Amino acid sequence: MIKIIKGDKKGKEEYLNLLKSRRTEVDSEVVKTVSNMLSDIRENGDSSLIGYTNKFDSEELNAGNILVTKSEIEAAYNKVDKKFLEAIKKAKLNIEKFHEKQKHNSFVIADEAGKIMGQRYIPLKRVGVYVPGGTAAYPSSVLMNIIPAKIAGVDEVVMVTPVRESLDINPNVLVAADIAGADKIYKIGGAQAIGALAYGTETIPKVDKIVGPGNIYVATAKKLVYGEVDIDMIAGPSEILVVSDDSANPKFVAADLMSQAEHDKMASAALVTTSIEIANKVNEEIEIQIKDLKRRSIIEESLKNNGIIIVVDSVNDAIDIGNDIAPEHLELCIKDPFSYLPCVRNAGSVFLGHYSPEPLGDYFGGPNHVLPTNGTARFYSPLSVDDFVKKSSYIYYSEEELLKAADSIMTIAEKEGLTAHRNSIAVRKN
User: Fold this and answer.
1) Which of 90, 196, 356, 362 has the most beta carbons within 10 angstroms of its beta carbon?
2) What pLDDT digit, counting tens, does each position of 333-345 carry?
């Protein structure tokens, strides 16, 4: 059962405080451990990288077998279910179609003779994609991280993922990486993999940006190497906020809340509804549906500690609460969701109507599922093609046009006390 509260000021603050309580600082010992590992990788390259991998993952790994071969990828295709293969290919097409629309064109302004200026969009040269292994092997994340990079025009996408003791990688992940277009795949994981991507080793090339989810050690490593390379984001626990009126189907809402609660015990699932009847029926449906779910214990703890149902007077009140929370996923299970879409200011991704559940976005729909968490949707965006390009501006003035502007430039330089700046213009004027 999820706790039901009123959507007044006190109730809203109660839930916001609950969300804030999940934002814990990383343990200092974790930071120290990761920092030492990164220093080792930076100084010793492959020897440290392989040493850590032998210690944590497989003693069989060495510089000669660290790169996934074509034959290993071919073998993975023989191990995956044909239905899965077909589904992944369909998902790829949807994701490509959406992200193609995000591409920008460079521009040039040449309105006046003697003046030319513009902006160029330049793809990053090399990007590293981290993919978790073990029980947290998500082929969908492989697609979501690699496809936008390829559409952006990144020269080389390097994927890293932890190897199992037998030196193999989850075949579903390998196949997804091949379909998405990974250029190289290495059998390394953990903080050591982040260090290798950030600094480069004899075997692993240095990248410009690192994307992809991971455990606390991976997340800490990404945070520590930021500045040496760019990163996508530091992701927190998963979140869903469902806004509903009396048109919502309690079965659907209950199922959607649990779809996020099953991620982990710190995941947050909330319903903001105008109907106390819907609120009660959703709780009843959770009790019914949870009995058959594999991760029941995780869902129960997540809903108990981080779940809530807030009853409000209107849909506008519900969306106001959503804008304050800035959830990772926002579902509008209401009569006319498109009319309320302009009111949504803060959300990672919005799901409209009764037949657009959050897992549609996770796996298949097209928009990226790498989304801002912990309220950062107030100022941060989903992963996109924009994350894999940089912009460079340029400017050209003829002698005549520069001389026209010379006095204005020198005046500003003088006010800032930068005489060498003034002189750079003056020597061309005299």
Assistant:
1) 196
2) 999 999 999 999 9
Q: Kindly state the DSSP code that residue 164 receives in the 8-state scheme.
A: P
Please report, to the nearest 10 degrees, the dihedral formed by the alpha carbons of residues 308, 309, 313, 318 taken in order: 60
Task: Report helix, strand or coil for 103.
Answer: coil
Secondary structure element (H or E) that encloses residue 28, with its range: helix 28-44
Contacts of 129 (CB under 8 A, 6+ apart): 142, 145, 146, 149, 157, 158, 159, 160, 182, 210, 211, 212
What are the DSSP E strand ranges found in 171-208? 184-186
DSSP labels for 406-419? HHHHHHHHHHTT-H
Please state the pTM of the whole predicted model.
0.93
pLDDT of 191-225, one tens digit each?
Answer: 999 999 999 999 999 999 999 998 889 999 999 99
Binding site residue list for substrate: 238, 260, 263, 329, 362, 416, 421
The architecture that CATH gives domain 28-231 is 3-Layer(aba) Sandwich (3.40)
In order, the DSSP letters of 338-355 are HHHGGG--S-SEEEESTT
Give the torsion through C-alpha atoms of 206, 210, 213, 219, to 10 deg: 80
Two structure tokens written together for 256: 């959607």
**Please, where are the H alpha helices in 226-357?**
250-261, 276-289, 296-306, 315-325, 337-340
Residue stretches of the annotated binding site for NAD(+): 130, 192, 215
Looking up tokens 């290798």 gives: 196
CATH topology of domain 4-23+236-366: Rossmann fold (3.40.50)
Residue spans per domain, the chain: 4-23+236-366, 28-231, 399-429
CA Rg value for the chain = 25
Query: What's the pLDDT band for 187 if we cut at 50, 70, 90?
Result: very high
Give yes or no for residue 33 having a pLDDT over 80. yes
Q: Which residue has the higher pLDDT, 165 or 144?
A: 144
Find the distance separating the first CA and the last CA of the chain, reported in whole Å: 81
Instruction: Tell me whether domains 4-23+236-366 and 28-231 share a fold.
Output: yes
Q: Any idea which residues carry the catalytic annotation?
A: 328-329
